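Anyone else keep sequences and structure tokens together like this?

Example one:
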Amino acid sequence: MRGTEFSELKAFAAIIEEGSFVRAAARLRISPPALSQTIRGLEERVGVRLLNRTTRSVSPTAAGETLFARLAPAFSELEGAVADAHASRDRPAGSLRINVPRIAAIRFITPILGDFQRAYPDIALTVIIDDMLTDIVEGRFDAG
């Protein structure tokens, strides 16, 4: 799906959720005429009218209701995924692979290992001690 197609679908969903082109346009931070043009493009692309519009109201057609019923859970999942990613910024997790020479491991890594593990319990740390010059990209290390 191209970015414009996703934007059209988000615009369509916003109109249904807000019940108004004006409120949906304000939520999306675009002008009502731009929103109207976006919806016309979506309707042309799918080949069916999705919204019944008058100067005072907007309502979904049967095809619009069907489309929105399928889109709403998908958008909810996407928003949840973004929220989860955002929440993880406060608590790092995953794996961290570093490659260091023996002297660096002794002088810098060993003294802070305990504190690091307590501060970041969700990070699986792998320290490879190697006195040879290593290509950290080739070795798939995060740092070295």
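And example two:
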Amino acid sequence: MSEDPREKAERYRFEKWQREQGLVPSGDDPGHPEPSGSSEAGRAYSAADRAAVVEVSIQQAIRRGEFDDLPGAGKPIPGLGQSHDPDWWIRRKIESEKLTGLGPPALMLRVEDRELEARLDELHHEHGVREAVEDFNRRVIEARRQLLGGPPVVTPTRDVDAEVRAWRERRAARVASDETDAAPPRRRTWWRRRGA
């Protein structure tokens, strides 16, 4: 079976480095410093040889300062004392990219249930509020029917009429507070000030 060209190139670099460091005497053929009668097994390197090469390379890189400005230098390793989570890389990607809408339906519906009132308050028409609540209820029922695994769906459905009433009340309160904040203080006219 033929040797992998990448391994062959790396072996050549390693042998060249060994000759330059004076670890092995130089042979007649620069590509093969071993005696010509040696076999493939004779050219294999021990784990100690590879570890020595790696250690020397690391020490040289440290002296050159290649590890000085690495990101996270001097900071604690995040999540070091926590239990092992097999999906840690997914969670970290979601946090770093600030992705939304990803996860099991049960968890996503819980989050949406918490934020539903704020989302409804952004709507301007009662028809849109009704549609949004009906869509939410439809997705909750659909998630309960599917058996995909993961946590159970415990999010309750919302009463459409009750949500519309609550939306109207919040909207009326918001409009009233905006009017009181926006009303300028009454100023007395100059003829009333003179007479007083």
